[in-house]
Amino acid sequence: MTSFRTTDSKREEFRKYLEKTGVLDCITKVLVVLYEEPEKPNNAMDFLRQNLNATGPETADVEALKLEVTELRQKCEQLQEENNDLKARLQQLEPATEPEIPEN
Protein backbone atom coordinates (compact mmCIF):
# COMPACT_ATOMS: atom_id res chain seq x y z
CA MET A 1 0.00 0.00 0.00
CA THR A 2 2.93 2.32 0.67
CA SER A 3 4.30 1.86 -2.86
CA PHE A 4 0.88 2.81 -4.26
CA ARG A 5 0.96 6.14 -2.39
CA THR A 6 4.55 6.75 -3.41
CA THR A 7 3.66 6.17 -7.04
CA ASP A 8 0.64 8.48 -6.78
CA SER A 9 2.69 11.22 -5.13
CA LYS A 10 5.39 10.90 -7.80
CA ARG A 11 2.75 11.15 -10.51
CA GLU A 12 1.17 14.14 -8.85
CA GLU A 13 4.58 15.80 -8.46
CA PHE A 14 5.37 15.15 -12.10
CA ARG A 15 1.97 16.47 -13.20
CA LYS A 16 2.55 19.66 -11.20
CA TYR A 17 5.97 20.00 -12.78
CA LEU A 18 4.51 19.68 -16.29
CA GLU A 19 1.80 22.18 -15.46
CA LYS A 20 4.25 24.65 -13.89
CA THR A 21 6.63 24.56 -16.85
CA GLY A 22 3.83 25.00 -19.42
CA VAL A 23 4.24 21.59 -21.02
CA LEU A 24 0.64 20.56 -20.38
CA ASP A 25 -0.67 23.80 -21.83
CA CYS A 26 1.49 23.44 -24.94
CA ILE A 27 0.48 19.83 -25.55
CA THR A 28 -3.18 20.67 -24.97
CA LYS A 29 -3.05 23.48 -27.51
CA VAL A 30 -1.46 21.24 -30.14
CA LEU A 31 -4.02 18.50 -29.53
CA VAL A 32 -6.85 21.04 -29.85
CA VAL A 33 -5.42 22.18 -33.19
CA LEU A 34 -5.30 18.56 -34.33
CA TYR A 35 -8.86 17.98 -33.11
CA GLU A 36 -10.11 21.03 -35.02
CA GLU A 37 -8.42 20.02 -38.28
CA PRO A 38 -11.18 19.34 -40.83
CA GLU A 39 -9.07 16.72 -42.57
CA LYS A 40 -7.01 14.70 -40.15
CA PRO A 41 -3.40 14.19 -41.28
CA ASN A 42 -2.25 10.72 -42.22
CA ASN A 43 0.63 10.91 -39.79
CA ALA A 44 -0.50 12.44 -36.51
CA MET A 45 3.00 12.21 -35.01
CA ASP A 46 4.47 14.37 -37.79
CA PHE A 47 1.65 16.85 -37.27
CA LEU A 48 2.41 17.00 -33.54
CA ARG A 49 6.14 17.40 -34.15
CA GLN A 50 5.62 20.22 -36.63
CA ASN A 51 3.18 22.06 -34.40
CA LEU A 52 5.19 21.61 -31.24
CA ASN A 53 8.18 23.15 -33.02
CA ALA A 54 6.07 26.07 -34.21
CA THR A 55 7.18 28.19 -31.26
CA GLY A 56 10.00 29.75 -33.24
CA PRO A 57 12.94 29.17 -35.50
CA GLU A 58 15.98 27.21 -34.44
CA THR A 59 18.77 29.14 -32.74
CA ALA A 60 21.15 28.35 -35.59
CA ASP A 61 18.66 29.80 -38.07
CA VAL A 62 18.31 32.97 -36.02
CA GLU A 63 22.08 33.40 -35.76
CA ALA A 64 22.50 32.86 -39.50
CA LEU A 65 19.80 35.42 -40.25
CA LYS A 66 21.34 37.95 -37.86
CA LEU A 67 24.69 37.53 -39.58
CA GLU A 68 23.06 37.95 -42.98
CA VAL A 69 21.26 41.13 -41.84
CA THR A 70 24.54 42.58 -40.55
CA GLU A 71 26.32 41.79 -43.82
CA LEU A 72 23.49 43.24 -45.90
CA ARG A 73 23.43 46.44 -43.83
CA GLN A 74 27.17 46.86 -44.36
CA LYS A 75 26.76 46.25 -48.08
CA CYS A 76 23.91 48.77 -48.20
CA GLU A 77 26.05 51.42 -46.46
CA GLN A 78 28.92 50.71 -48.83
CA LEU A 79 26.66 51.05 -51.88
CA GLN A 80 25.11 54.24 -50.50
CA GLU A 81 28.58 55.78 -50.05
CA GLU A 82 29.55 54.68 -53.54
CA ASN A 83 26.36 56.17 -54.92
CA ASN A 84 27.01 59.49 -53.16
CA ASP A 85 30.61 59.55 -54.46
CA LEU A 86 29.48 58.87 -58.02
CA LYS A 87 26.84 61.59 -57.82
CA ALA A 88 29.46 64.06 -56.61
CA ARG A 89 31.83 63.09 -59.44
CA LEU A 90 29.03 63.42 -61.95
CA GLN A 91 28.24 66.90 -60.69
CA GLN A 92 31.89 67.89 -61.14
CA LEU A 93 32.13 66.48 -64.65
CA GLU A 94 28.86 67.84 -66.02
CA PRO A 95 29.13 71.29 -67.49
CA ALA A 96 27.13 73.86 -65.66
CA THR A 97 23.76 74.03 -67.26
CA GLU A 98 22.94 77.43 -68.65
CA PRO A 99 19.46 78.78 -68.10
CA GLU A 100 17.30 78.52 -71.18
CA ILE A 101 16.40 81.76 -72.89
CA PRO A 102 12.80 81.71 -74.02
CA GLU A 103 12.31 82.41 -77.71
CA ASN A 104 10.01 85.23 -78.72
Q: What does the model show?
A:
The protein has 104 residues and is mostly helical. It is 75% helix and 0% strand. It is built from four helices and no strands. The chain has helices at residues 2-21, 23-36, 44-52, 59-93. The longest helix has 35 residues, at 59-93. The model has no long low-confidence stretch (mean pLDDT 86).
Beta-strand proportion: under 5%
User: What distance separates the N and C termini?
Assistant: 116 Å
Beta strand count: 0
Radius of gyration: 32 Å
What descriptors fit this protein?
104 residues, mainly alpha
In short:
The chain is 75% helix and 0% strand.
Q: Secondary-structure map with pairings?
A:
Elements: H1 2-21, H2 23-36, H3 44-52, H4 59-93
Helix pairs in contact: 2-3
